[in-house]
Structures are given as structure tokens and as C-alpha cells.
């Protein structure tokens, strides 16, 4: 251990403290917005500095107040947590920069709320305690609830109301599931739950497992829990839609991976047929309805339902390959969605270019990040003889290519008024460039997927 | 005691779901408050003396599990904050639409969709 090692509490405490400071400042001023941007950038750097430690044999961890294990709250940064935290913080940073340079923030609380969302997400990804997961989850959700009404037109408020009521139900189910886990296993520490699950009869965990699937399903928005997504993504502001679809939906996929593959692998194995059916249903439903929509943002919302279906289907595959594909799909999808939502807001030639790159990645056309994640899913599906699923993945790619480019042909792009200028263009191009660069050199994405799931309870 | 608690949790949950499906925003908000409280009561019911005991307790001292009570307290605080936020949102929606009924909101939404649908070239 050198003196230069990044402490684990760095990326946790930094956004938390500065978001509280920002809450007292007027976010409409340029310097406050830049302070928020600097905070997120610093959080991103701190998280990146954790990478070498997370990949070492002993991922960094600490227990609050130096209590013994099982009494204190454990924070832990394994590769899965770090890659999710990196991608989510990067997405938040890009969106905040975009909103600021695109013409100014119109609400005094916006920078502070985005940084609080960042603090909540980092906390969710780094915690190793089920109830602490709930607390950070609620911190992120509360900031998102407040952000959903950003813009404050009647339309934004309708979106916010739908979003809050539906997600409150999800949070309540999650809380109930956490308490049931505690009552069953007698611990809130995830590592101890893994040990409990290996020693005892896992069928006792089926009810909390089902509740967790519903709760994260609401966040991620796959088939029976998707109903809020199109209305919210359509009526919330474009930047907020990018935040919700790009960063907040990561809680859903991370939670399913963490609780499903890590804490309760036996229950995940038990739920496999259900996950396959739900995944296939969301892929079909999202792709077909995306074709029928005229509003670009609704098309994108249905495309994100398809994406959620792919993640669920990947989770439903037995063995490590499916889980790796799920991680890669979630990470690539998060960047895709942000780039799409930001690019469709603008007109002109540059926005068209950025939009088409992100659309190619969503559909899985090489050389983009989306291609590799889908190729991985196809490989895993074919290796296990799920030809039907493989066919569905190809069908979904073709259909999303058609629906995203039908949206491309529409009126949006004729409007030359608000073209991407140098600042906003830089954000959207950076996101698109990241997708193409990952497509050309997929090693980091593939390795992130492989190593992230290597330490999970189910495969240990 | 557990029986009474579970009946009350079920009743609160059922009433909450029923109210969330109402057509008026204040009732929807109250419904979510009831739902949150049903889960808080569920947590508290877990710490009744019928099950479980605290960590490191000397024999002979009847102590219930304090962890669940601290969880309930945290959940109450979070639920309180979120309910306040939701009620603010109800107030703002009322000011923006001049109505608290969801069917009016749906009308406004359909009207907007219709208007933009008419106005698009191609």
C-alpha cells in the first residue's frame, strides 16, 4: 500500500459534501454550475483511481465506526461497483455540462440535485449492506423525483407525478424485501447473506427475491413494469430523460446483478424460466411499439424497454457468460441512451451524426460498443442452445434500427434553429466517440464485464 | 399480536392500493403514504418479542431486536421526506393545471399529443 492510494470514502464523501454546499447556492449562476461540474469530474477521477485496487485480490473495503462485521455497515468496491460508478458518474457529468452550455440552467437547485443523484448512485454501487443500499437508493430516487419536474411546465409536472408515484411503489417493495431478507438471514451484510444462502435452504429467499425483481423491474422498466417509462421520458425535459434513462436505470440492472447473481444465486437459478419469458416479452413489446410511435422520445423510451429486456434475458442464461453480457449491455446501453436523448433535442447536421452513431450502437451495428455487448449475448445464448432467444435478439436489432432511423427521418431534423454548437456538440460527440472507440477496441468493455462478475457470490 | 399486526399491514396495504387508483391527486398521494406506513409497520412487527432477539444480550433480559426499530425509524424519516415532496408536486400540478383530477391531466396530455401530431410536417 502506497501513501497515494485512494481511500474508498473519497468518491462517497466528496459529492455528498459539495452537493450540500451547492444546495445553498443559486444554480442559475455560471460559476455554481461549473462548481457542480468540477465536483462530478473530481468524483469521476476519485472513482477511476480506485480501479487498480478494485482489480487487486482484496477489493478496498471499510466498516463504518470500526465495528465488527455484521454490526457496522460495510462499504466495498469490487470491479462491478467501480465500473457501474464510473459509467454513471460520467453520464451525469456529460448531462450536467450539456444542460449548462446548452443555454443555461433554469432552476436554482439543478446542479445540487444532479450532484446528490451522483452521491446516491455512488453510494448504492459501493455499499455492501442491504439496508444502506436502500438509504442510498432513496437518496438517488429523491433527487430524481425533484429533477423529474425540472422545467416546471404543466407537461414536466405530469411526468414527475407519474414517475414519483410509480417509483414510490418500487421503493416500498424494495424496503419490504430488505426487511424480509433480514428477518430470514438475521443479517444485513451482503457477504454474510451469501454465506447464509450457501449453508441454508435458499427457498426461504424466494419471496424477498420476487419482491426485489419487481422493485428493480420498476427502476429498469422491463415488460410488466414498463408502463411509466414512455410517458415520463416523453414529457420530462430532454436532459432529465437522459439522466433517468442513462444513469438512474443503472440502479435496476446493478441491483438485479448484485442481489440476483451475488447475494441469491440459487434464487436467480430458480427464476431463470421467468426471466427468459419476461426478457422475451419486453424485447418483442419494446421493438414492436417503438415502430408504431411518432414522437422521437417515445421511440427511445420503447427502445430502452427492449434494452431492459435484453439485460433480463442475459441474466436468465445459466453460467457466467450471460452475466458478463448483462454487464456489457447495461454499460453500453447507459451511454447509448444518454447520447440519443441529448442528440434528439437538437437539429442540424452535427446532431444527426451523433444521433446516428448512438442509434447504430443501440441496434448493435459494428463497430460500436452495442455490437459487442449484443454479440456476447448472442454467443452466450447460442452456446446454451437458446436459438429462440438468439433469433429474438437479431429481430430486436433489426426492428430498433428501423424504428430509430424512422425517427431520424422526421421533422426533428428539419428544424435548424437550435443546432448543436461547440459546447453541446462536444458532450454529445464525446459520448458517441466513446461508443465508437469501445467498438473499435472492445477489450476494456469485455474485460470489465468478465472481471466484474468474477467476484460475485454465485461463481465464487 | 403478530396476527393483528399482519392484518393491519394487509389492511393498510389494500387501502393504499385502492387510494392510489383514485382519480384525485391528493388521494393518490395519501395512498402512497398509507403504503409506506404499511411497510413501516411490517418492519416493526418483525421486532415483536415473538421472534428474534438482539445481538449480545445477557440471558434473563427480555430485549427485542433494536436493529429493526432503527430501520423503521430510518424508513419513517425517508417516507416523511418523500411524502412532503409528493405533496409539493401535487400543489404545483394543481397550480399548473387548475385541477386535481387525473382525467383532466390525461385530457391535457392527449390534447398536447394531438396538437403536435397535427402540426408536424410529414
From TrEMBL, chain B:
One of its GO terms (cellular component) is plasma membrane. It is found in: Cell membrane. Its main location: membrane. Keywords: Cell membrane, Membrane, Transmembrane, Transmembrane helix. It is a multi-pass membrane protein. InterPro entries: CPA3_antiporter_subunitC, NUOK/Mnh_C1-like. The chain crosses the membrane at residues 6-21, 28-48, 68-90. Belongs to the CPA3 antiporters (TC 2.A.63) subunit C family. This is Na+/H+ antiporter subunit C. The lineage of its organism: Bacteria, Pseudomonadati, Myxococcota, Myxococcia, Myxococcales.
